[in-house]
Amino acid sequence: MTIIIHHLQRSQSERIIWLCEELGIPYELKLYTRDKHTLLAPPEYKALHPSGTAPIVYDGPIHLAETDAITDYLLAKYAPTPNALVPAPTAPNFADYIFWRHFANGTLGPATGRVMMFAFAQVDAANPVGLGVKARFENAARMVDDRLAASKWLGGDEFSLADLMTVWHLTGLRQFNPFELTPWPHVVEWLKRVGERPAYRRAMEKGDPGFEPLLGAGKPEAIRRG
Ligand SMILES: N[C@@H](CCC(=O)N[C@@H](CS)C(=O)NCC(=O)O)C(=O)O
């Protein structure tokens, strides 16, 4: 039985396609486009799982949402042990790997998401809560940049799941609330390396054909509402 990746285009479910491409896990891909007005998932996507959020993966009768749950599931069930994305617990960089793997969705993702929501709500720039939200995001981005100044990849010398989990928050997410990456030069260099990975290129082309991933430092064009 082949797993089905339900990919909401221009969304973080690109990470699951990428994970499967990196590890050679076979999958069937189903593509869904965002509602043109709300930019949210369309009703047929919402019907796939109670969460209604991308990614969603079907493995026969098992229907999973939540990126971290899906990655843990696919790695445990379908990836060889050891595999190239997860350092062994005995590796000297294991703690670094675990930290950055969880920093992605535990801190960086929520921080970028809150900044985006405040921008959507057009909160006054001097609003103290908004300023706090911005400061949390900038601190998270600075931490990633500092780490990448000291280490080629987030988890250490080799590309890992920590990188795969982090990329979306500093690339695709910027199409909803465009911002530059120029304050974080090591992030920009790292994204160049990410873009050289054949599995990344394949995943992006399969998931969002014709859409150039936002790997550059400049402010990207915002996704258009219909
Ligand atoms: N915590 C969830 C967040 C999922 C999420 O918010 N996905 C966005 C895509 S980037 C989504 O589904 N947006 C469309 C919608 O909410 O209708 C995860 O890590 O999978």
UniProtKB/TrEMBL annotation:
One of the entry's Gene Ontology molecular-function terms is: glutathione peroxidase activity
Q: According to its UniProt record, which reaction does this protein catalyse?
A: RX + glutathione = an S-substituted glutathione + a halide anion + H(+)
Annotated GST C-terminal domain residues: 90-211
Q: Where is the signal peptide?
A: none
Per its UniProt record, what PROSITE patterns does this chain match? GST_CTER, GST_NTER
Q: Where is the GST N-terminal domain?
A: 1-82
Arranged from A to Z, the UniProt key words for this protein are: Transferase
Pfam family name, one? GST_C
The catalytic activity of this protein is classed by the Enzyme Commission as 2.5.1.18
Q: Which CDD domains match?
A: GST_N_GTT1_like
Q: What's in the GO CC field? A: cytoplasm
* Enzymatic class: transferase
PANTHER family assigned to the protein according to its UniProt record, in alphabetical order: GLUTATHIONE S-TRANSFERASE 1 (PTHR44051:SF9), GLUTATHIONE S-TRANSFERASE-RELATED (PTHR44051)
Family of this protein: Belongs to the GST superfamily.
Protein name from the UniProt record: glutathione transferase
Q: Which organism is it from?
A: Mytilinidion resinicola
